[in-house]
TrEMBL record:
Binding site for Fe cation 1: H76, E77, H109, E110
Chain segments annotated as transmembrane: none
GO cellular component terms given for this protein: cytoplasm; nucleus
Cofactor binding, per record: Binds 2 Fe(2+) ions per subunit.
GO BP terms: microtubule cytoskeleton organization
Reaction(s) catalysed by this chain's protein: [eIF5A protein]-deoxyhypusine + AH2 + O2 = [eIF5A protein]-hypusine + A + H2O
Compartments, as annotated in UniProt: Cytoplasm; Nucleus
Binding positions (Fe cation 2): H234, E235, H267, E268
Metabolic or biological pathway: Protein modification; eIF5A hypusination
Stored InterPro entries: ARM-like, ARM-type_fold, Deoxyhypusine_hydroxylase, PBS_lyase_HEAT
Species of origin: Naumovozyma castellii (Yeast)
Protein's recorded name: Deoxyhypusine hydroxylase
SUPFAM superfamilies: ARM repeat
Keywords: Cytoplasm, Hypusine biosynthesis, Iron, Metal-binding, Monooxygenase, Nucleus, Oxidoreductase, Repeat
Length: 321
């Protein structure tokens, strides 16, 4: 979920109380876009745990009720949101979801990533279990990354390293490479694509490139789409959605069109196109409204809903879910 999408879905329904938001979120009869709006409205409440812990924890537990749903897309977004709230109330449910073989891979992945974002030391043993036992490579790699991030956050390096102030509000799966060492884009690109390095290091190069935000850095990031790891490629797509750069539209369009590509990668490419939201993304996304992969089809619906909402004078679109 990109920052742009998130900002979009935080609007609209603040006038509902917590229970109404929960009812919209868990109702399979609500349009998917409304369920997303309810989710991001609940997130705003869950974040305020220092001021209003009772409502904040209620919001967390209402969000967690969604894990009984079937939609892989919605549940993974819930896990993402729980990880971004900094509210530790969710660590128990996230550990459970991560290790639950009945949850789909993107949901288990996002639960593991959320535990990393929370810096949840209490989850280290379960993350190790996930790393050892999960059958899905992208989930395993997420557990490896989350362990590295938690260890980093609780190490002296987290205090002493100088990091560029991020333009984005997200807690990322890894911090950018520290500013103490100078890198040019070519060096960052080679670290990014070096499959012999730990994923955590490669992600640190990715986020340093994101924060450079130059055309050269964008091309370097796009080179990551040739990697064998679905996890890695989906993160590149996520980063492009965050940056909101129209320069990434051609490569994201190509990645979304790779029918043999992992669903999580195509899903993230669709969401990134929705976040970039230039007129050229509309015909691209419309092509995937009937995609046979659920998370791709639902991402196209959500992305087009956002586009229509932001550009409601220019384009008419009725959400179908
Ligand atoms: Fe993800
Ligand atoms: Fe995602």
């Amino acid at each position: 979920m990109s920052t742009n999408l998130e900002k979009h879905y935080q609007k609209v329904i603040d006038e509902n109380n917590l229970e109404q938001l929960r009812d919209i979120l868990v109702s399979k009869d609500s349009a998917l876009s409304n369920r997303f709006r309810a989710l991001f409205n609940l997130k705003c409440v869950a974040e305020k745990f220092a001021v209003d812990p009772v409502d904040a924890n209620k919001a967390v537990n209402y969000m967690a009720e969604t894990f009984g749903d079937d939609s892989e897309l919605l549940k993974h977004e819930v896990a993402y949101v729980l990880g971004q709230t900094k509210n530790m109330e969710s660590t128990t449910i996230l550990r459970h979801v991560m290790l639950d073989a009945a949850q789909q891979p993107m949901v288990r992945h996002e639960a593991a990533e959320a535990l990393g974002a929370l810096g949840a030391e209490v989850a280290l043993d379960d993350l190790q279990k996930c790393l050892d036992n999960d059958p899905h490579p992208a989930v395993k790699q997420t557990a490896e990354l989350a362990i590295a991030r938690i260890q980093w956050e609780h190490s002296p390096a987290a205090e002493t390293e100088k990091l560029q102030q991020s333009l984005y509000e997200s807690t990322d799966p890894a911090p950018p490479l520290a500013l103490e060492k100078e890198y040019n884009v070519a060096e960052l690109q080679s670290l990014l694509n070096n499959q012999d390095k730990p994923m955590f290091e490669r992600y640190r190069a990715m986020f340093r490139l994101r924060d450079l935000d130059t055309e050269e850095a964008i091309h370097a990031l796009a080179s990551g789409f040739n990697d064998p790891s679905a996890l890695f490629k989906h993160e590149i797509a996520y980063v492009f959605g965050q940056m909101g750069t129209p320069l990434a539209v051609p490569v994201l369009t190509e990645v979304l069109g790779r029918m043999e590509e992992a669903p999580m990668v195509r899903h993230e490419a669709a969401e990134a196109l929705g976040a970039i939201a230039t007129p050229e993304v509309v015909p691209v996304l419309k092509k995937y409204l009937d995609d046979e992969v659920d998370v791709v089809r639902e991402s196209a619906i959500v992305a087009l809903d956002m586009y229509a909402y932001e550009n409601s004078n220019e384009f008419e679109y009725a959400p179908t879910a």
